[in-house]
Structures are given as structure tokens and as C-alpha cells.
């Protein structure tokens, strides 16, 4: 199964950078070859955030597979990310918090 993920951030704040790093680690460790990631800075592209009805950042949106799902925060709680996005990790452990 292929995942299409979109991460909305606001500028290059430490909180945004942590969310980006956590997302890359999740994709590298658990979704190898199964995800496409797009990072959107709402300061640079507010219309995209409006289209996806983003009210807070960082927000991770799972566009595919449908239905669309969203997680708000820096993605540091991996278990909540997997549950919230209904992602089945490749590795059996959900460590790395």
C-alpha cells in the first residue's frame, strides 16, 4: 500500500523542524518505499492550507489511501501517529519516541 503524506508547517521553527525530522524518520524506518511526502509552509502557500482546512501547524495529512486523516503536532509520539493515520509499520516495534 502506498501512502501520500502532506506535512503543513509554519516557517522554519524548531517545532516545525522536529516534525519534519520525525516524519522523515517514520518514512525511512517504517514506510520504506511506500510513501510520498510533501512539505508545505503555510506562510509560502496559504491556499494549500485553506484547501485542506488546516487550522494548526504542524499538521500531517494522509491524502492516500483514503479516507483522509490528520495528525496535529510534532509527530514525536510514534504510536499515536501510526494509530491516528492508520499506518501499518513495517517493523514490529513502535519504539523511537
TrEMBL record:
SUPFAM superfamilies: Thioredoxin-like. This is Circadian clock protein KaiB. InterPro entries: KaiB-like, KaiB_domain, Thioredoxin-like_sf. One of its GO terms (biological process) is rhythmic process. It comes from the Bacteria. Gene3D superfamilies: Glutaredoxin (3.40.30.10). Residues 6-87 form the KaiB domain. It comes from Acuticoccus sediminis.
Amino acid at each position: 500500500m502506498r501512502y501520500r503524506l502532506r506535512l503543513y508547517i509554519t516557517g522554519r521553527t524548531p517545532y516545525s523542524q522536529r516534525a519534519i525530522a520525525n516524519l522523515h524518520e517514520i518514512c525511512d524506518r517504517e514506510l520504506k518505499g511506500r510513501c510520498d511526502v510533501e512539505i508545505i509552509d503555510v506562510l509560502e502557500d496559504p491556499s494549500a492550507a485553506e484547501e485542506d482546512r488546516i487550522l494548526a501547524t504542524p499538521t500531517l495529512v494522509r491524502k492516500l489511501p483514503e479516507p483522509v486523516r490528520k495528525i496535529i503536532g510534532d509527530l514525536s509520539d510514534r504510536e499515536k501517529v501510526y494509530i491516528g493515520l492508520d499506518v501499518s509499520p513495517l517493523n514490529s516495534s513502535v519504539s523511537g519516541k
